[in-house]
C-alpha cells in the first residue's frame, strides 16, 4: 500500500491508486446517463454513484446551498477513496465546480459543462442549450462555449417540466411532445445548427426532440464527452485501473425504491441501492 498521504478537502488519506473507484454524483437519477457512458468507454473502472435524492431538485436551490451540498458529497467520496469525481449534474457543474476545485486541489473533479461546450463548437456555430432553469440562469454554457469559440452564437432555454415528465415515464405522452415543442420553438426560430442536452436527464427525450428539430441539427450529449475527458485525465495521472473492476456501488440520501426502479429501467439490470446519511457516513475510511 502506498503510505504517502495527501490532504483532500481537509481529509488526510493515502494517495489514490488505479484500483480506487471513480465517484459520480447527481441530485438523482439523471447522472445514470453519465454512468452508462462510463460503462461503455471505461469498462475496467470501478464506479461509485451517489444520488442526493433527499434534496432534489437542485435546479431550484441557491448557489450557496448547492456548494454546501457538493462539499458534503465530496467529503463522502474522499472517505470512500474516490480517485476522481465526476459531477454528473449540470446544475452542480454550473454553480459549484470552480469553488470546490480550489478547496479540493488534489482531487480531480470533472464537470459536464466544459466537455459538452467544447464538443458543441466542433460541430456548429449556432448553438442551442436546453437545461434546468438554474443552469440556464447561471449562463455557464454560454460562457464555456464563448471561451472556446468567441464567434459562436448561443441561445439557452430553461425547461422546468422535462425532468418530472421523464421521471414519471411520460416520454411518449402527447403532452410531453407539446411541452418540448414550446421549449424548442425559440431555438428553432434562431435556426440553430447544434443542440446541447444541458441536463443529464434529457438524452431520454431524444426520440421526442429529434422528431421536432430539423434533421440537420446536431445533438451533443455531454455525458459522452465527460467520459472521454475522464479517460484522458486518468491516463495523464497514471490512475487507470489495471485490475478487474469491482461492481458499481449505488447510494442515495432518500428512499432507495424509486431510484432502484428507474435505475433498473435505464441501465437494464437490477441494482442494489443503499440509503445513507452523508453526515453519519462521511467518517467511513
Automatic annotation (TrEMBL):
Provides the (R)-glutamate required for cell wall biosynthesis. Substrate binds at residues 26-27, 58-59, 90-91, 200-201. The active site is at residues 89, 199. Pfam families: Asp_Glu_race (PF01177). It is an enzyme of class 5 (isomerase). The gene is murI. It comes from Leptolyngbya boryana NIES-2135. Keywords: Cell shape, Cell wall biogenesis/degradation, Isomerase, Peptidoglycan synthesis. Its EC number is 5.1.1.3. GO terms for molecular function: glutamate racemase activity. The keyword Cell wall biogenesis/degradation applies. This is Glutamate racemase. PANTHER family: GLUTAMATE RACEMASE. NCBIfam families: glut_race (TIGR00067). It catalyses: L-glutamate = D-glutamate. GO terms for biological process: cell wall organization; peptidoglycan biosynthetic process; regulation of cell shape. Pathway: Cell wall biogenesis; peptidoglycan biosynthesis. Belongs to the aspartate/glutamate racemases family. HAMAP family: Glu_racemase (MF_00258).
Amino acid at each position: 500500500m502506498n503510505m504517502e498521504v495527501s490532504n483532500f478537502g481537509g481529509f488526510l488519506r493515502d494517495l489514490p491508486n488505479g484500483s480506487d473507484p471513480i465517484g459520480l454524483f447527481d441530485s438523482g437519477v439523471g447522472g445514470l446517463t453519465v454512468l452508462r457512458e462510463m460503462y461503455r468507454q471505461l469498462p475496467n473502472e470501478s464506479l461509485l454513484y451517489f444520488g442526493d435524492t433527499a434534496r432534489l431538485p437542485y435546479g431550484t436551490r441557491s448557489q450557496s446551498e448547492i456548494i454546501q451540498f457538493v462539499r458534503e458529497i465530496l467529503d463522502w467520496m474522499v472517505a470512500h477513496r474516490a480517485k476522481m469525481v465526476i459531477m454528473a449534474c449540470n446544475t452542480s457543474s454550473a454553480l459549484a465546480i470552480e469553488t470546490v476545485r480550489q478547496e479540493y486541489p488534489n482531487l480531480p473533479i470533472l464537470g459536464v459543462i466544459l466537455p459538452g461546450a467544447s464538443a458543441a463548437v466542433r460541430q456548429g456555430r449556432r448553438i442551442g442549450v436546453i437545461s434546468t432553469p438554474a443552469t440556464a440562469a447561471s449562463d455557464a454554457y454560454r460562457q464555456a462555449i464563448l471561451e472556446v469559440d468567441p464567434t459562436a452564437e448561443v441561445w439557452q432555454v430553461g425547461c422546468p417540466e422535462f425532468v418530472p415528465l421523464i421521471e414519471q415515464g411520460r416520454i411518449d405522452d402527447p403532452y410531453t411532445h407539446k411541452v418540448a415543442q414550446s421549449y424548442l420553438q425559440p431555438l428553432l426560430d434562431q435556426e440553430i445548427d447544434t443542440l446541447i442536452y444541458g441536463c443529464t436527464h434529457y438524452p431520454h427525450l431524444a426520440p421526442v426532440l429529434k422528431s421536432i428539430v430539423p434533421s440537420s441539427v446536431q445533438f451533443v450529449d455531454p455525458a459522452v464527452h465527460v467520459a472521454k475527458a475522464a479517460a484522458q485525465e486518468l491516463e495523464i495521472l497514471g490512475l487507470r485501473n489495471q485490475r478487474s473492476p469491482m461492481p458499481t456501488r449505488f447510494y442515495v440520501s432518500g428512499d432507495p425504491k424509486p431510484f432502484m426502479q428507474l435505475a433498473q429501467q435505464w441501465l437494464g439490470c437490477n441494482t442494489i441501492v443503499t440509503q445513507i446519511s452523508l453526515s453519519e457516513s462521511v467518517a467511513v475510511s
